[in-house]
Design brief:
The chain is α/β, with parallel strands linked by helices and 357 residues long. It contains seven helices and 17 strands. 41% of the residues are buried.
């Protein structure tokens, strides 16, 4: 039994966090449920499930017979996550706010608040596994359910965060979790998984940035790889690297966004073969099993969440820089996204893509 260990379970209102709380309670932990209030739109016409999610989380805690808390993190989330998201887009990058949120909010502000209220550790409903090796260092391993594995969005967690976190769903499949929820009559057993960025539920990033920050991306020129003007774009923030649809230009064949140049306000379009690169440079790096790379290291790496990890060589080329050289060219590596390195099922670490060539 673990009655002397107090766990603050991050309750999102979804089935995963609800079952995480149930499993830990059944293991004998002293648990409390807590929900982060992160975003309430300025425009009341914009859909937002925040209040319903909080209500669902509260009901789950009542069913489990545990206390439910709400942490008011709207201002912090706006400053740390939404502003970063906006500035990255305006700067020509492609942000991944979920990774920033995990680092600074769920395993940052939420962990700090939980400890300040007496918790020893936190727990979340992520599909991943935390282990401790013989030296006492904490490791991050892929979940049993490889289709649901979420280690890609957890690469930035440091040793303190890993050592103060429980991930009870790592050894279960999604189907098993839903079955547990059904068997225990949890109200969210069949609640659908969230898919979109929570503060941009309709996926219209440009409209969100204009609505929240008053920023309008100015139209500019489409150019080809030789610098020739071939058309007009409607503003850089409307495009992502590798995009084909919605370009509003016809050249008689499929063309893709290869590059965005904020200084010149141009978007480079090219044939698909030109959006593949072998070299990816990352910074803001975090390494998990060790503090630094000693020479070149064979890894498998992925540059987007849904991608299969591919063979590559990792080399630390500066204190806060790693260059990944892939065996095979990778499609549409975008600045601002994350590249995550693996050794079999274990996360070696990752970083934010700075450039690709």
């Amino acid at each position: 039994m673990n009655k002397n260990t107090k766990i603050s379970v991050a309750m999102s209102g979804g089935v995963d966090s609800g079952v995480a709380g149930l499993l830990l309670k059944n293991e004998g932990y002293d648990i409390v449920g807590a929900t982060m209030r992160l975003y309430i739109p300025n425009d009341s016409s914009v859909p937002c499930n925040t209040m319903q999610d909080i209500a669902d989380a509260k009901k789950i805690c009542e069913m489990l017979g545990i206390e439910h808390r709400v942490y008011e993190f709207e201002d912090l989330f706006y400053d740390r996550v939404i502003r970063d998201f906006t500035q990255t887009y305006i700067g020509g990058g492609t942000p991944n706010p979920c990774i920033v949120c995990n680092k600074l909010m769920k395993f940052g502000a939420f962990l700090d608040a939980s400890i300040s209220h007496g918790a020893d550790k936190i727990a979340t409903g992520h599909y991943a596994i935390i282990e401790k090796d013989s030296s006492g260092r904490y490791l991050l391993r892929k979940a049993k359910d490889k289709a649901k594995d979420q280690t890609y969005v957890l690469w930035s967690l440091d040793q303190f965060q890993l050592s103060h976190t429980l991930l009870p769903l790592g050894e279960y499949t999604k189907e098993e979790i839903r079955l547990i929820a059904e068997q225990n009559n949890l109200i969210n057993a069949h609640k659908s998984d969230s898919q979109d960025i929570c503060f941009v539920p309709d996926g219209d990033y440009a409209s969100f940035i204009k609505r929240e920050f008053g920023y309008t991306s100015e139209p500019g020129n489409y150019i080809d790889i030789d610098g020739n003007i071939i058309g007009k774009h409607k503003g850089i923030i409307h495009y992502t690297i590798g995009q084909r649809k919605g370009l509003g230009i016809s050249v008689g064949r499929h063309i893709f966004v290869k590059e965005k140049n904020v200084l010149n306000n141009t978007v480079t379009l090219a044939d698909e073969e030109h959006i593949f690169t072998r070299h990816v440079v990352i910074n803001n790096i975090n390494l998990i099993p060790f503090d630094g790379l000693d020479g070149k290291m064979r890894v498998e790496a992925k540059i987007r969440y849904s991608q299969k990890a591919c063979p590559a060589v990792a080399e630390q080329t500066a204190h806060d820089e790693i260059t990944l050289t892939f065996d095979e060219p990778q499609r549409a590596a975008a600045a601002g996204q994350s590249a995550v390195m693996y050794d079999d099922d274990y996360v070696m670490g990752g970083g934010i893509i700075k450039k690709a060539y």
